[in-house]
Amino acid sequence: MNTAESPVVLAADDVTITFDGRDEQGRRTTVRACDGVSLALHAGEIVALVGESGSGKTTIARALARILTPSDGEIRLHGAAITKRTKRLEYAKQVQLVYQDPFASLNSLKTLRHILGRVIRIHHPQLSGRDVDARIHELLELVALTPSKDYIDRYPTSLSGGQRQRVSIARALAVEPSVILADEPTSMLDVSIRLDVLNLLDRIRREQGVSILYITHDIASARYVSDRMCVMYHGRMVETGPTEELISNPQHPYTRLLLDAAPDPSRVKPTRYPQSV
Ligand SMILES: Nc1ncnc2c1ncn2[C@@H]1O[C@H](COP(=O)(O)OP(=O)(O)O)[C@@H](O)[C@H]1O
Ligand SMILES: [Mg+2]
After folding, report:
1. Distance from the CA of 53 to the center of ligand 2, in angstroms?
2. Residues 6+ apart with CB under 8 A from 261
3. CB 232 within 8 A of CB 183
4. Which fold has domain 3-102+171-267?
5. Whole-angstrom Cα distance, residue 159 to residue 164?
6. ∠ CA(212), CA(131), CA(89), 5° rounding?
7. Chain centroid to CA 271: how far?
8. CA separation for the pair 87, 65 (Å, rounded)
9. Phi-psi region of 118 (alpha: psi -120 to 50; beta: other; left: phi over 0)
10. Which ligand 1 atom sits nearest the alpha carbon of residue 235?
């Protein structure tokens, strides 16, 4: 799929985000979490945003999700810059964030029927109860929590981390978004099920046409799933390019460092493709 030719859905344009803080002596400091960051997500594309902890990945994702406002620069959705007047609910219908921690991000006191039904009703208030139920089943099937009747009345506490992350992804899909921002969605999961979640993201973009920003510190998983890769270092975007080109010919010393640190560069791309997704 050549998604680099398809239209840009979501873009950050020279975005700077600063936080006020204090240093050890109590003096006022400013942290430049993102410093002139630009990135673009095309329709149906998976872009990996790679960088070590503290490089500014979550901060740019929060700006892309309109949770925080850039100090400078613009976020554009379908070409239109976000302003104060951009309605939050309308924006959230288009851009959904999936968090790292599937244990904290789901209300453990509510069933999956409630968790998913609530989002469906907010975004489609006209649907009847029966239609909402049908849609919940459809979403559970979509993320391979099957048969859905075995899951719909369960609580998140009775699910594994991987199953919970599938529920988080189903919840994001409930609004039929154009974009999913997945912030380290596998880093809290067992190694054995990480590939299942990556394969699920890939299937979702193929079947639903959703664009996905896959955020990770792990260049091997980025390579496995992404069409293009963006590398962040100390708040700056240091390198962007088609994944295989970037990996075979890294330009920035930090990208080379990340590749060297991967356990076995010749086997960075997993050779076994699990059947289950
Ligand atoms: N709300 C905040 N207040 C102050 N500093 C923050 C805040 N959020 C993030 N930072 C700082 O911004 C930098 C980038 O953080 P973050 O975007 O979370 O990085 P990453 O997701 O790549 O690990 C870090 O130095 C972090 O301490
Ligand atoms: Mg982060």
Report:
1. 6
2. none
3. no
4. Rossmann fold (3.40.50)
5. 6
6. 45
7. 24
8. 12
9. alpha
10. 14
9-35 in b/e form (b: 16+ CB < 10 A) is bbbbeebbbbeeeeeeeeeeeeebbbb
Backbone dihedral angles phi then psi of residue 276, each to the nearest 5 degrees: -80, 135
Question: Given the CA of residue 56, which atom of ligand 1 is nearest to it?
Answer: 17
Write the DSSP string, 252-263: SHHHHHHHHHSS
pLDDT tens sequence across 141-196: 999 999 999 999 999 999 999 999 999 999 999 999 999 999 999 988 888 889 99
| Cβ contacts of 239 within 8 Å, gap of 6 or more | 229, 230, 231, 246, 250, 251, 252, 254, 255
In one letter, which amino acid is 157? Answer: T
Residue found by looking up tokens 């907010």 in the block: 122
- The protein residues having their C-beta less than 5 angstroms from ligand 2 (an ion) are 57-58
pLDDT by residue (tens digit) across 232-244? 999 999 999 999 9
